[in-house]
């Protein structure tokens, strides 16, 4: 018997607005209305400023470890721009721009990195999950969230963000396999920023693209220039349509770059070639969007000055809110463990400052009562 | 009333909750047409269809992680893990996320899911089909852990677990899946999570156990001819120390029996709680009859490992004579 080819495929890569300012008018036509491009650009400027301020807060001892988002703003923002309120955005920890676009208060993120769990409280009706610290585990939650919407006959989509390193985790493969085999409306958005802390993406995947990983699970797959807001929106629109109408998942590999360190606890100079970093600085998503807008006479120096002043004022107020928040109650960490606090846990809570845990609870009279337990949404 | 095995009682609870609440769905390996490897979900696929009884890819982390998403999305998933030995791949999702989402998000995202898992030894099964990991999960804040020892309790506790707003691991002692039958009401009822059951009242000592070991305890108590109060925990966490302490204050003596290894087993925690609550009433050191600090042996020797009537009987006599 002759050897037959039973499967053949190709990966498409999309770039609409490149780092030299070239714009693919055909692909980009009608993709984002001009007024929205301006809003998105302004949002990226504000997010970038928050990032810079957050870095300084850490360096000056006012905040704990923080992962800079610098250089990756276009990915999560482009995704959030396409998603509708009923959709879920299930992020990792470098997606500030998208989370803020959807309506997460900026101080929530600062509170999180200031070691205050109240920063993870999700405002009612906002379909986002909190920052995910362990790598790759959140993709399965998106798979389940997408499934829950399909189960109820709704047309919602779950879009999950993760990095190149996360595609090495088993949970990525399980999530992709579940979503594809059970026909779930999930978008797997991979931010390939080249580095998982100090390990380059070629250690995560020896194939020429990460996008191939989507194909392995039988899902539609595309690679985009992740620093190109238009390309991200282009891929997201197709993926959202596929998920909403056919309950089929999509894998998007967005090629981007982490311009900063992994976190403020990292020093990327130990493992990255300065020339590589330098080359990516020219591909900054904000720079190219500004050039695009200026070319279309939609932006100018005065507007830039105005948005920078606005960003300064906004972020200064955000930092103030985050820093001025009342200290959490010293038993705050007990009160959301269960809807109904177990009796022994209540004793631990009520006596944490007054007795050893070995005390007979019958002797503990007049202990303060816990605050009303949080209830399920 | 119907005379049901533990398997049938669980099956009935699943049917009744699924009929009552369309947010309840089952997912896992072989839970669909095959009805599960122990046939616990027998007939459910036929009755409720593909959308509510779902055969998933073979991936335990995937099953639990996806169930977490389903639960956060407002549903009441009841994932099945085939054997407790296969909880390992799902451990990360259970402890890193299911147990933490409520407190992590200050109650704004929650995981009301019930993880059903056959547990324990005694059925001549291969490796990793006979373990007793309940204390690992009891040691994970944010979870509730349940293990019934009778068909009646199994039905009532499972209904409570499915309705519970927090994540519950529902361990099903496979050794007694079909070992005996019991009258189980057809009507809906619940057994509250967190309440132990006094199986037999007695005066000389208190015996505390859970899961399949309760049956071994009953046999040992009968053989001893002594008046022993047997407390079946039913819920591993939150632990009903009140019922235990009330009994030990009365009897002054306590023996704890569990299949799991001795070191850091739940018996250690219970013994400490007895000391905290009943120190002045104790007439004898608290005794433990447990599995050993070894890997669970293959089945040729599993009865050497599991607490049996003889070992429990010896503990009874030593405790009585102290």
Quick structural summary:
The complex is a heterodimer of chains A (377) and B (322). With 377 residues, chain A is of the alpha/beta class.
Q: State the shape of chain B.
A: globular
Q: Helix tally of chain B?
A: 12
Q: Please report which band the strand proportion of chain A falls in: under 5%, 5-15%, 15-25%, 25-35%, 35-45% or over 45%.
A: 5-15%
- Structure summary, number of beta strands of chain A: 8
Strand content of chain B: 15-25%
How far is the first residue's CA from the last residue's CA of chain B? 45 Å
Rg calculated over all Cα atoms of chain B: 19 Å
Strand order of the largest sheet of chain A: 1-7-8-4-3-2
Poorly predicted sequence stretches spanning 5 or more consecutive residues of chain B = none
The outline of chain A comes out as globular
- CATH secondary-structure class of the largest domain in chain B: Alpha Beta
Class inferred from helices and paired strands of chain A? alpha/beta
Q: Please state the structural category of chain B.
A: alpha/beta
CATH topology of the largest domain in chain B: Rossmann fold
Kindly report the oligomeric state of this protein.
Answer: heterodimer
CATH architecture identity of the largest domain in chain A: 3-Layer(aba) Sandwich
The name of the CATH topology of the largest domain in chain A is: Rossmann fold
């Amino acid at each position: 018997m002759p050897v037959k080819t039973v499967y053949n495929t190709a990966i498409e890569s999309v770039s609409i607005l490149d780092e030299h300012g070239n714009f693919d008018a055909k692909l980009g036509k009608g993709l984002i209305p001009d007024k929205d491009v301006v809003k998105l650009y302004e949002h990226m400027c504000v997010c970038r400023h928050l990032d810079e301020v957050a870095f300084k807060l850490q360096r000056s001892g006012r905040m704990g470890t923080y992962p800079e988002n610098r250089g990756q703003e276009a990915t999560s923002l482009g995704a959030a721009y396409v998603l509708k309120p009923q959709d879920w955005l299930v992020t990792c920890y470098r997606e500030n721009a998208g989370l803020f676009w959807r309506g997460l208060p900026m101080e929530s993120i600062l509170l999180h990195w200031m070691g205050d769990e109240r920063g993870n409280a999700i405002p009612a009706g906002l379909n986002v999950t909190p920052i995910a610290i362990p790598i790759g585990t959140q993709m399965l939650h998106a798979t389940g969230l997408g499934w829950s919407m399909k189960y109820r006959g709704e047309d919602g989509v779950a879009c999950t963000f993760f990095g190149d390193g996360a595609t090495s985790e088993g949970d990525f493969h399980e999530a992709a396999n579940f979503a594809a085999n059970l026909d779930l409306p999930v978008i797997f958005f991979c931010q390939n920023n080249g580095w998982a802390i100090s390990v380059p993406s070629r250690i995560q995947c020896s194939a020429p693209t990460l996008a191939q990983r989507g194909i392995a699970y039988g899902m539609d797959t595309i690679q985009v220039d992740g620093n190109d807001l238009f390309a991200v929106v282009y891929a997201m629109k197709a993926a959202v349509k596929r998920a909403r109408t056919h309950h089929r998942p999509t894998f998007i590999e967005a090629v981007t770059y982490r311009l900063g360190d992994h976190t403020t606890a990292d020093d990327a100079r130990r493992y990255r070639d300065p020339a590589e970093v330098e080359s990516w600085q020219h591909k900054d998503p904000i720079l190219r969007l500004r050039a695009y807008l200026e070319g279309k006479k939609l932006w100018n120096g005065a507007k830039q000055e105005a948005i920078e002043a606005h960003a300064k004022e906004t972020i200064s107020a955000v930092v103030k809110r985050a820093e001025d928040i009342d200290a959490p109650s010293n038993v705050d960490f007990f009160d959301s463990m269960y809807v109904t606090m177990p009796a022994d846990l209540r004793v631990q809570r009520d006596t944490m400052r007054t007795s050893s845990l070995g005390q007979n609870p019958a002797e503990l009279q007049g202990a303060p009562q816990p605050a009303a337990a949080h209830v399920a949404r | 009333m119907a005379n049901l095995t533990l398997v049938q009682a669980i099956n009935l609870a699943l049917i009744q909750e699924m009929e009552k609440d369309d947010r309840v769905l089952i997912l896992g390996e072989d839970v669909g047409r095959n009805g599960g490897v122990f046939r616990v979900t027998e007939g459910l696929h036929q009755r409720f269809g593909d959308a509510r009884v779902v055969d998933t890819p073979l991936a335990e982390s995937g099953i639990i992680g996806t169930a977490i998403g389903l639960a956060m999305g407002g549903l009441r998933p009841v994932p099945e893990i085939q054997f407790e030995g296969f909880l390992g791949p799902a451990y990360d999702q259970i402890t890193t996320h299911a147990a933490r989402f409520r407190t992590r998000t200050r109650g704004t995202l929650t995981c009301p899911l019930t993880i059903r898992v056959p547990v324990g030894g005694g059925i001549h099964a291969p490796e990793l089909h006979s373990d007793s990991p309940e204390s690992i999960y009891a040691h994970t804040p944010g979870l509730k852990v349940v293990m019934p020892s009778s068909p009646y309790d199994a039905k009532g506790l499972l209904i409570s677990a499915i309705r519970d707003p927090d994540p519950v691991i529902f361990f099903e002692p496979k050794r007694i899946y079909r070992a005996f039958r019991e009258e189980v009401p057809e009507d809906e009822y619940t057994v509250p999570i967190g309440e132990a059951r006094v199986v037999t009242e007695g005066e000389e000592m208190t015996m505390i156990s859970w899961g399949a070991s309760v049956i071994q305890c009953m046999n040992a108590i009968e053989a001893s001819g002594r008046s022993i109060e047997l407390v079946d925990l039913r819920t591993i966490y939150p632990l009903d120390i009140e019922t235990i302490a009330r009994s030990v204050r009365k009897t002054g003596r306590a023996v704890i029996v569990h299949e799991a290894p001795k070191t850091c087993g739940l018996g250690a925690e219970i013994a400490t709680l007895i000391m905290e609550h009943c120190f002045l009433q104790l007439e004898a050191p608290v005794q433990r009859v447990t599995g050993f600090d070894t890997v669970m042996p293959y089945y040729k020797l599993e009865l050497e490992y599991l607490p049996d009537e003889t070992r429990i009987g010896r503990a009874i006599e030593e405790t009585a004579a102290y």
